[in-house]
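Dear colleague,

Following up on Tuesday's group meeting, I ran the structure prediction for the two-component complex that the binding team flagged. I've pasted the input sequences exactly as they went in, so you can double-check that nothing got truncated or mislabelled along the way. The structure tokens for the whole assembly follow below. Feel free to forward this to whoever is handling the docking comparison.

Inputs:
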Amino acid sequence: MAINADHLCAKLSHKREYFGLFLLCLLPVNLWELLVFFYRASSMRLIMNAWEIAGVIAYLFAFALVEALFVFVLLFIASLLLPERMIATRLIPIGAVLIILASLAVSLIHLHDPWDVKFITLKRWEMLCTGSALILTGAFIFWMQKNERVAGAIRAVAERLEVLAGFYLGLDLLGLGVVLVRNLL
Amino acid sequence: MHSRQLNRREFLKLLALPPLVTLGSALPKLGVKPLEDQQRPNFLILVFDTFSAPHMTLLGYPRNTTPNFSRFAQRATVFHRHYSGGNFTMPGTASLLTGVPPWAHRGLHLYGRVAETYADRNIFSAMGEDYFTSVYTHNPIVQGMFDQFERHLDQFTPMGELAILSEALSERIFPNDFMLSFWGERLLRGSGSESPASLFLSLISEDFDSFTPEDLKQRYKDQFPLGLPNNTVGSFFILEDAMAWIREQALNLPRPYLAYYHLFPPHEPYMTRREFVGRFNDSWKPEPKPVLIFHQNRSEAYLNDKRRQYDEYIAYVDAEFGRLYDFLEGSGALENTYLIVTSDHGQLMERKIHGHVTGTLYEPLVRIPLFIASPGQTDRQDIYTPTSCLDVLPTVAHLAGKPAPEWCEGTILPGLGGEPQEERSLYVLEAKKNPRLLPITTGSLAWRQGRYKLISYFGYPGVTDDFELYDLENDPEEREDLYTSRKGLAAEMSGALMNKLDEINRLPIRS
């Protein structure tokens, strides 16, 4: 599919859909960061006072914004392959499925330390796992594409999650502000 | 009183004054040399991280690990029983730089910080404005301390400056907020078996991390076949670069100066240079020591292998120090300069324990080298009375012609203006499991009094008031715990040590 300027502009007109997708990217990134932070908080409490711990959290929130933006950009680039009609109706459900499945897979990799997966140098069994996951994801998306009820249900859940994601967006922006103040003033 | 209004010309002259005054005060910070004063002595302090004194040939080690330090010692004061404030970098270095014990400065934890009071009470502030102060370290823990002392530092060279590769982004992107951003980065990247807080980008970072050091390993494999020396948190360096840089500083720093350079080797990983690999593949094995507490279940074979690697890394440090010393001597850089060589803590390879992240306080962990070569010194001076890292600050102040700060708890070192104190009490504290701002209720406290050393372990889960007692004069290797066999002495000393702990906990805690 050729991507010209008009085609791109038409896709960019779906700002609401893309903003929703960005909010969905914020969710797993922030949730995981908070999970790891609270796991380590007890040892940090030994060393730091409350303000210092808040300073560290500010760096985590600020980074979450960058990381979510990175994931969003990847999804945005991938979405350019979709027809315009699908962006209007299926962007959020497909994006949500991809984000959730990818987050689950990566969380598993992090939790299972001995796996120590390096994506640029995948071993044979890792390639098999990754390939299988991609095929399953593709199949699920295809099924969702055909089934309006599943797509509708995922969209409904995603829209409700956007409220929580909006809360994280506020925290991330606050974190970014704290980081800027600490370094520039 | 007669008064008159300023005319326009006078007013303009006055307006020019504040910027000039500001510029004048900023000159040293900009690296512009202040007025040279060749009369007052300079101080070059070299700290080699994790350098255990019992591993040095001139202090009795059977392997020839340190021929160059031995050569240097022929024209220096050698302190045979010198102790750190703790068993790892934070308490050891903080005590050296502030002249107070760990319970006062509260630098008790890995990547911790000292109480804010000591941002203005340290060796750099003690030298006053008339000394130019210069610092560098490979160690991020020490870098965090420098951040706290920054207003008293004229030259603060960033850690990455002497690194071949520095993967830590925090220092480069957030130099004004190093410690918290470093903590953030550590959480985001994860460390060891800890999951990274960054869900997706940490995977890519791991990919690049795995490539770059390998690439470096290839590039330097002829010189460093085991891998490139590094500080375990992503900074790769070679000691040769640091030594070349120190040579340059010793020649060019504005005088008088106090320079503090804290180099990472021989801290693990033990990545020694080619000519030292296998140098100590000998049949020597120390006699195993009793296993009493906090053991990591390391086998004797493992410990002996680690000991060999550590000794070979020390030999590399020794060779590079030798080159530096020869240059400093030959160039005349030491003519009016005290050269002080020491460490922050030691390393343990016995009793099924390897490393220094442990609750124990045995001699190899807490006894560190201290050599001070005075300008013009031609003979060796040996000091056998116990001394502490707290003593370096008041000694340097004394030699610079300044009074020891009243907050400093060390004393002037014997042989350099102080009196030997055989019966002086020395304490070493390890309390990384204790909250920073609460009384010390969990930790290990060692007390050296004359010939005896008592170690108390308190507050650890499953450990109730455990003590060990050693007669270091008859048993310098701490093989025979006398706590149960010398009941009278044990009761007397343990009572006194617990009273000391109570006294420590009654002191105000500075945040």
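Residues 5-184 of chain A form one domain.

Cheers,
M.
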